[in-house]
Amino acid sequence: MRDLASKIRTGDEKALEYLKNEWNQRLMTFARSYVRSRDVSEDLIQDTFIKVWETRELLERENYLVPYMFTILKNKCLDYLKHKTVELKYNNRTSEDYCYLIANLYALEDKSINIITESQIKEALFAAIKKMPQPRRDIFIMSRFKDLKNYEIAQELSISVKTVEYHISRAVSFLREELKDYFILLYFFLVR
To answer: Are residues 98 and 173 in the same domain?
Structure first.
């Protein structure tokens, strides 16, 4: 589906279903990293898709759809954490859960964390990949972007599967360090 945002904007329910199927797992990973509950995360994601649908006339271009969705989910997580914090505070419970909620609340409220576009993430990712040594770069690209299995890469390059695994592991470590400001979002694009 080429222009998903415009299809959703015009009320195409199949486009919304496609969006749900494509992004549900990534949204789940994001929400669970803050609220720690699968059930709560599912509810927040459902509310996010409802909000996208209710405000679909605001969708201008496709490259705003994903950041818009994550912004809605971020705000839903924030609202949930604020509510839980008040609830725990009201019940005079100072526990590990309360400390965790406060930490995540501060993380989500941090204004230096901006929702960035998918194209910005990809641009940063490819710039970092270019910095890798040649064999590692090729192996990483074959694995993540050409969807080759480790044994297929090993056969094609005439190296061992262990060598392929080593280079992929080193590539991910390098990207984690090189793109630490983007890494939580990069996960959504590199997850397999």
So the answer is: no
- Quote the CA–CA distance of 35 and 181 in Å, as a whole number: 21
pTM: 0.54
Dihedral pair phi/psi, residue 2, rounded to 5°: -70, -60
**104 and 135 both lie in a single domain:** no
Q: Which residue has the tokens 């969006």?
A: 19
Cβ neighbour number for residue 84 with a 10 Å cutoff: 20
- What CA–CA distances, in Å, run from 89 to 82, 84, 93, 95, 167? 10, 8, 6, 10, 48
Show the tokens assigned to 175. Answer: 């990207």
CATH number at residue 42: 1.10.1740.10
Per-residue pLDDT tens digits for 61-78: 666 788 888 889 988 988
